[in-house]
Design brief:
Length: 259
Amino acid sequence: MARTRSRTPAVVAVANQKGGVAKTTSVASLGAAFAEQGKRVLLVDLDPQACLTFSLGVDPDEVQSSINEVLLGQATIAEVRVSCEDGVDLVPSVIDLAGAESMLMPRPGREHVLKGVLDEVADDYDVVLLDCSPSLGVLTLNALTAARGLVIPMPCEMLSHRGVGQLLDTVADVQRILNKDLQVLGILPTLFDGRSNHAREVLADVGERYDLPVLEPPIPKTIRFAEAPAVGRSILATSRTSKGATAYREVAQALAKRL
């Protein structure tokens, strides 16, 4: 399959400071879907819990250099990235990343560190997906400053609305001060149970509530997502024809037209 070429990669942050929203699953699945489209894809794990790293078959305990060393200026992305079976490259994370925020705090321009290191590999990729930690700290600010687009995964549950407003307030500050080009691509409904009236009501409400696009189709709730990390692959590889894999392919196709 011919590889798509672009001078500047589309950098997309996937963020929600609430945990358990299928953020990491979305990064892995969308990354694999973009790779199926023939795009050169880089995934960056910005969560000290290293869930994305583990999900793609890389043991964080055996990683020699990671995004932690990259952000601290001790390594480059080209030196730490690893190739994964889903056709994507990964910048892995380790638990040490938890201390990077305090080490970055005194640095001038600390919010721009990630953007600078991504610029060094800009010619190598068409799409860069940033898996943000479940917080609104310096690492997430770095992701929002580096990104062109933002996807907000959100389960179709009323309590999941809590915190999205705070995230959007942070996004507005980033757009005003740090990155005027940042665009919210939309809310990605996850863990959707079409049999539930509540889930359907939340899905109908979410776009109007925040005046944002809602990416379609919603990602269904299925055990297939839990099974995939056990073999270090995304659901697109472990259950290719499942509803979950199909939904992520359709979302990736829709996003590709906007990137």
